[in-house]
Amino acid sequence: MKIVVVSDTHVPDRAASLHPALLGELQRSKPDLILHAGDISTPGVLKALGRIAPVKAVMGNRDWLFAGKLKGFLELNIHGVNIALTHGHLNFLTYWWDKANYMFRGYNRDRIVRRLELAFPKADLVVFGHTHRAENYRQNGKLFFNPGSATIGDIWVHTRSYGILEIGEDHSVQSRIIPLAGFHLVNRQWEAQDDQT
Predict the structure, then answer these.
(1) Domain-located, residue 107
(2) Which residue range(s) make up the domain with 64?
(3) What's 69's domain CATH number?
(4) Is residue 121 classed exposed, middle or buried when 0-12, 13-18 and 19+ CB atoms within 10 A define those classes?
(5) From 12, 30, 98, 192, which residue has the greatest number of CB atoms within 10 Å?
């Protein structure tokens, strides 16, 4: 089963629209399912993704329009693989604590992985977003997978990306991060960019 994973699209709060290459790339990949790990911001994003494949999504910390419509996390089982889908901020107390830690200590994958491992002890695969930083990391027999932000990227290098998971009937999980190139944001609008420079 091929699953596309996107997160932190932030339309329209940080970008007026989705990355110009995203929907075309997703259509060409022919996924069976799309997971959105939150910070969707507007229902139009889920509708656009839903024209490509069925979508399962969770609520991020900026998804006020989805209050009461989306859950904070979902647990799925695909071919015997237990998957937890979460934005990753867990709750507002954790969100603010993590924000303070980030400001004073910087990004720390171990802190995030430890928190998610405790929150989802039965998961074989934890899919999350929130940090805007792509992660494809295995620890203690679990895969922690963050596709990164499909719109604004992380704060330092602004690398935009999405992810692909392939889950076999033998419970195998193949995972990869796919960079999105060719465009950058200027005042919330996409402009073509030569990625060779």
Answers:
(1) yes
(2) 2-192
(3) 3.60.21.10
(4) exposed
(5) 98
Could you tell me the two tokens for 48? 């656009």
Cβ atoms within 10 Å of 155's Cβ, excluding its own: 13
- β-pairing, 2-6 vs 183-186, is unpaired
pTM assigned to the model: 0.92
Q: Tell me whether residue 110 is in a domain.
A: yes
Tens-level pLDDT at each residue, the chain (197 residues): 999 999 999 999 999 999 999 999 999 999 999 999 999 999 999 999 999 999 999 999 989 899 999 999 999 999 999 999 999 988 777 877 777 777 777 778 888 899 999 999 999 999 999 999 999 999 999 999 999 999 988 777 778 999 999 999 999 999 999 999 999 899 999 999 875 54
Residue 92: inside a domain: yes
Q: What is the DSSP secondary-structure string of 146-182? A: E---SSS--TTT--EEEEEEEE-TTS-EEEEEEEE-S
Q: How many domains, the chain? A: 1
Q: Would residue 197 count as lying in a domain?
A: no
CB-based contacts of 167, cutoff 8 Å, min separation 6: 1, 3, 78, 79, 81, 173
